[in-house]
Design a protein that fits this description.
Structural class: alpha+beta
Number of strands: 19
Helix content: 25-40%
Strand content: 35-45%
Number of helices: 2
Largest sheet: 5 strands, mixed
Length: 327
């Protein structure tokens, strides 16, 4: 789009949104009416929430672009009942009257929302009150045209944070598991133990093995004493809020004192096997050498016997010859 004459900025044509606002301001001044702010131009229907006027107001906004195909999402953490004011805005170059606006909660169509246009900017606002967990979830605004644009507000209760890595301890020791909620105060905390698919609530009144520390409202600590291998597994800390529930898993690993010795015992066994093999080889080598020596000695004796026998046989003819000569 080429900027109209006289509307060039120091670095080139002015942006589309600014041109639209200038055009709207020029039209308003021509009619003798002042230009209203885009947000304040939306009627504030606070009569919808007069029943819950004692609740705080949560205002959230999403800005969309006309040529983007990527939905915009915003996560909102809500701990207690509140009045909610959601606003979506989009800049339209082809005229705001060609855009269809709808609001949905999940797949359910919503009514009683407000729309307004200031220049080339189209606003859609939805006001309501969240008082229970059923009203939590996703609220989306849709701007339909050549390309549908969507903005989504995701309402959820605060998250619970525990230890990310497994907690490793030993049989007979004591340990403390902790869960914490940042900047929130749950109404109630509950601990569960699961060594499979079933979660069993931990009752500190029925067992002296467990103790729960409730010093701070935003955290809980579970102390487990005299650990055994049966105590290992997954522990769940469960937090209850006015608008829902949240939980976190803490993994506990209980080892016996023999476990650290297993590598050492393995090395000892390997050394013992190696020594035994060496001794067997030495014994076998010595026996083989002795057998060879015995064989050589036997051959030498046999050779001597053979030599003696040959000497006697050789002397007998000579003796006869001497006798014949003497005769």
């Amino acid at each position: 789009m080429r900027a109209p004459s006289g509307l060039l900025g120091p670095r080139g044509p002015l942006p589309l949104a600014l041109l639209c606002l200038l055009a709207a301001a020029r039209g308003s001044l021509a009619d003798g009416q002042p230009t209203a702010s885009p947000l304040t131009s939306l009627p504030i229907r606070r009569e919808m929430m007069t029943k819950y006027s004692n609740l705080s107001l949560e205002s959230h906004n999403i800005s969309l672009t006309e040529h983007s195909n990527v939905p915009v999402e915003k996560n909102i953490t809500l701990e207690r009942p509140s009045n909610i004011e959601l606003t979506c805005q989009i800049t339209i170059s082809r005229g705001v009257n060609s855009v269809n606006v709808t609001w949905k909660k999940g797949d359910e169509l919503l009514e009683n929302y407000l729309t307004n246009a200031t220049g080339c900017i189209l606003y859609a606002q939805y006001m309501f009150t969240i008082i229970n967990s059923k009203q939590m979830g996703s609220y989306s605004c849709f701007f339909g045209g050549e390309k549908e644009q969507r903005g989504t507000f995701n309402f959820k209760v605060p998250e619970i944070h525990g230890k990310n890595k497994p907690l490793i301890t030993y049989v007979g020791d004591s340990t403390v598991l902790m869960c914490k909620c940042q900047h929130c105060s749950p109404l109630h905390w509950t601990w569960y133990h699961s060594n499979g698919s079933v979660q069993v609530p931990i009752d500190v009144q029925m067992s002296e093995k467990y103790a729960i520390n409730r010093t701070n409202a935003n955290e809980t600590r579970l102390k487990i004493m005299q650990l055994t291998e049966d105590n290992q597994g997954s522990y769940w800390c469960h937090a209850v809020f006015q608008l829902g529930e949240s939980e976190e898993r803490v993994q506990l690993v209980v080892l016996s004192y023999l476990v650290p010795l297993k590598p050492f015992l393995g090395i000892v066994v390997e050394v013992a096997i190696l020594v035994a093999v060496i001794l067997l080889c030495e014994t076998y080598t010595q026996k083989k050498k002795k057998h060879i020596d015995d064989g050589k000695e036997f051959e030498q004796v046999e050779q001597l016997k053979s030599d003696d026998t040959n000497g006697v046989e050789n002397n007998a003819p000579r003796h006869r010859k001497n006798e014949s000569v003497s005769h």
